[in-house]
Amino acid sequence: MTIRTSTADxxxxxxxxxxxxxxxxxxxxxxxSALSEEELQRPSKAGAWSIAQVLSHLGSAAEICTALIxxxxxxxxxxxxxxxxxxxxxxxxxxSPLAQREAWHAADARHLQLLDSHExxxxxxxxxxxxxxxxxxxxxxxxxxxxxxxxxxDIEAAxxxxxxxxxxxxxxxxxxxxxxxxxxxxxxTLTRLAPAQLALTLTEPATGxxxxxxxxxxxxxxxxxxxAGVLSGTAEAVLRLVYGRHQSTDNIQVTGTITLxxxxxxxxxx
Length: 270
Known about the structure:
It holds the Pfam family MDMPI_N. GO terms for molecular function: metal ion binding. The chain is α+β, with helices and mostly antiparallel strands. The protein has helices spanning 14-32, 37-40, 51-73, 82-93, 97-117, 137-159, 167-174, 177-183, 187-193, 235-242, 260-266; strands at residues 127-130, 133-136, 196-203, 206-213, 217-220, 229-233, 253-256.
């Protein structure tokens, strides 16, 4: 697995992102298909949400995103407004756990089918009026894969403590990890820790990088000249740390003036 970071949201073509979305969705469907209503109400790894509530979140987002893609296909550049989203969320929240699972599966399938229909190179380019702005399809799919892969892990890890984000999804999500780290860091913690540079040593695969803590936060594909410390671990474990999903069983080591606790405060997740 080759790790690549970029300040771009999600470069390349739609195909690898769409394939990963299909794979992750199919895996999650297999994971939850036989769960009882009681099991669906078990806590997930996503804050206070149950497993069913994570499925509801993914399903309502799939419904909303399907409508946004259709809006983009029609040339409508209006961004989503809260007043049009709240009725969707309320309808999903009112469903029973079993109904949330069924509705997630149907909404997810419709979303993927629409993406499939616009994957062919001869299709006219579509810009999706997403929450982050007008996005080309591969960039949009990167945002969606972040939601899909990480929330799938929230469910899978609640059922199996050894669950990980699969390597192909980890590789893709690393391409946009700088974007996630920059946008979803705790400002007060960054102010407290900065200025500092951490050497980031990935053990699987072996890669040297830098976590730069300054007025802003960025990941760079180079090693710092005078690191304040070293953060080492697998690409998958470090990815989850940045997404606010560190597990005590993760083999992550932090040495120097910045601690693992500091990094968990820095990356609270979402």
